[in-house]
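User: Okay, second chain of the day. Same drill as before: sequence in, structure tokens out.
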Amino acid sequence: MVTTVKNRRFEDEDSGLGVRHLQVFLLFFALTVAYALRVNLSVAVVAMTDAASVNPNFPEYDWSEKTKSLLLSSFFWGYVITQVPAGQLARKYGGKVMLLTGLSICSVLNILTPICAKIGSWQLVCALRVVEGLCQGVVFPSTHTILSQWAPPKERATLGTCAYSGNQFGTIIMLATSGVIAASPIGWPSIFYISGGIGCVWSVVYFFFGAGSPSECKSISAEEKKLIEMSQASEVSSAQELPKEQLPTPWLSFFTSPAFLVLIVAHSVHNWGFWTLLTEIPSYMKNVLGKDIKSNALLSSLPYVCMFVMSFVFSTISAQLNNRNCITTVTSRKLFNSIGLWIPMITLICLGYVDADQSQLAVVLLCFTVGMNGATYLGYNMNHIDLSPNFAGILMGITNGVANIMSIIAPLIVGFIVTNEHDPEQWRVVFFIAAGFYLVGNTLFVIFGKANVQPWNDPPAKPRRNSTPQVESQH
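Assistant: Same drill. Structure tokens below.
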């Protein structure tokens, strides 16, 4: 009775808050932890290889630039591998189980990083990062699976943006604090101890308060549960014969669906441009514009701050448009995806023509480019759930797997093009290629993208021998 009263209080018209918002809040911190664990090595490795200039009281390792690059990329070797299997496992065993397992193991391994560096040097740290990548491969597919269960269609874009903005928040916090922690009396090992420890705390909290779906949640009120289920009822075929976790996965239908194929393209081109910027821009700023962005924690985190803030601005605009029924869901997806890719396309081209004495303009353009990318959370990023609520986690696993392969290839292409890091014309080619990907990718998404539930969301059940018909109760 007490729980029901509390939920009714949260669901009143003034606050509009319910248990589904608590679940999104927990997902926000899950992604905050995930990205903090992902990026902490990129900052810590500076202190690990040059402890004398940061804090000489802690171990220093003589690792070459090639070794450091190997360490920083090793995470993604494992990360790409588990994307598709994670979606299937999240659908079978539940998003909560997979998310909790992946992040809790990753957090413990992070705490062990300083010990591994001491006893096994870079080889053991590299192996550790590969395993961490394998663990984090479940994060996005599991998050999408959970969101598909909790988010009513009209709130999907807003709740999804709130959850996925944890990506930027975790990056901002880690970039802004890691340098300070490394130079403090507790030294660079504490970067791993603190981030891993926070991950362990989140795991405990999520174990007790997290839920993969409204049906698994004991604290949700009957009113809110009915609200969610009724709003999602229009997306479930009346002919669906099995519980969604038992439906056969229509793999062939996925890869023959134009709407899903362009979703893969949209996700991939976004990652190409995004990771080109975030991995190579520091080198461009230093060698062409004479501004060492890596040594400045504020400058290095500023683009993420812009994206974090703008994602909420776009989310508010989207919510207003949806509440007033101004545009359809498919128009909304294409509009915000166009803002997130075509405006950065223009600013990337402008960035290629910035002179060496206009470094402040370059920083502004960089922040604007990355900030506008925040609109894609309301575009392609939620489109997986639009197309197939039943298989959203698997779809995210597929697109994120392909997109992260692009994230690995993009910096390699930059290395092939930019043979002289001080030549602005070579960097201009890099920006033009990223802008071209944005143009083509979003054009295809605008032409072929859809936002209605696809027929293959409810595949026919395979006939069984000696089976008797069963009537599925509608909840």
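The chain has 20 helices and no strands.

User: Thanks, on to the next one.
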